[in-house]
Amino acid sequence: MSESGSRTGRWRLVVVGGGSAGVIQVRQGDVPPQEILVVAERVGTGMAFLGRTILQSYADELILSRRSGELQSALAVGELRPNADEYDTYVRESLLRSGASVTLAKVMDIQRDEDGFVLSLRTPGGVRRQVYADAVVLATGSTPRRPPEDWQAAGAISYDTVYRELTQGNTSRWAGLSVVIAGAGNSAMQTAGLMAPAARDVTILANRYVGMYPSESDDRFAWRAPSQLTYELVAKSSRECGRRPWRVPCVRHLVHDSLDMDGDTVRWRYRREVNLGMLGSHSLPDRCRHARGTVVSGGEGDEVWEETRGHDSVVVWATGSNPVYPPGELLASLSREPDGSLSRDEYGRTGVPGLFVTGACAGQRSVNDTVPARTRTPLVAVPPKAAPEFPVVQVAV
Ligand SMILES: Cc1cc2nc3c(=O)[nH]c(=O)nc-3n(C[C@H](O)[C@H](O)[C@H](O)COP(=O)(O)OP(=O)(O)OC[C@H]3O[C@@H](n4cnc5c(N)ncnc54)[C@H](O)[C@@H]3O)c2cc1C
Residue 324 in contact with residue 106, Cβ under 8 Å? Predict the structure, then answer.
């Protein structure tokens, strides 16, 4: 962790972030690693909170160089996919062996100076310092969405809390309680499977039916293998919930219309007609003692049901992620996409010449979707893809 690669104290490139996107920028990008300083609060994947959970992607979908088999050889014989701990080690070692310099620090601000950028850092020991760069790539990732404030005040948690507490062996937040999970994707499905063994019952409230990949959906971001357990639990528990001698955890999946909170009471509504698929039909009222709905409107065949849970419940948010960026006026002033990520073009260029984005903070949803920013892209007028108001970028070469 040195600055030997900087010329006169100014780096050719500073990459902010030590996750998979930061490593891909270093190892596959257009600046030699020896001329790069990586500044990261933590080195390793942002998925580390998943602990020993097996990742959805296969080893070759997660490699950080162009060398097929690089990660596979780090796995135990017979494993197709790494767990998050194994992947974390691979990301960390991959960066530390890349030849780039690495500093553990949080970037507190980025400003332009006459020649490029000045970044203000705070180290883990609280020391503040500045580094200078010709160009900056933000690879700062994303963070799970938090429940709205009033839900948080009422005890709702985000799904990453479930993973973090499970790695400590702690299930006290949901043991014996009714769990209500808001979310439709893999995080919702997989969190349900993790909470089910200790919970009284689990209800996933989705805004749409996503489907299993590749059997029910061609979208590779649809439900992946670890979600299959929850899929099976929904069907199996509809037959066996509460029956002895097996105690199959009770899990339901409903496409819902509304979810509200009133004091201690959580209330949701759903329609029969949008829940007639595999999971919905196994989750409708009267399938087991937990599924007690009241018809609030509609007639036979198109009933709208309402269910409530009281203080003996916990609500979990599993509704996706928000991009993360360093604080400061420069970044706050830039235009954004509808998902909150910074507007950029296909080369990762933002509205500020010399400032780039890559990885989850650039809307790239998986490791094998991650492409390094092209920091040496020649000066061309690239029209904006998504945001019409996006300014044409002048690139420092
Ligand atoms: C539950 C879950 C499961 C997933 N499973 C898969 C999967 O199986 N396969 C797949 O391809 N993708 C998966 N993803 C998506 C995956 O997380 C991303 O593809 C990938 O981790 C994004 O990498 P990244 O480097 O952009 O961000 P991250 O890995 O989050 O890295 C961000 C880095 O930026 C640093 N940082 C942030 N702010 C600052 C700052 N101000 N100063 C300094 N450093 C900062 C952080 O410390 C960290 O080092 C999953 C995501 C989730 C949430």
Answer: no
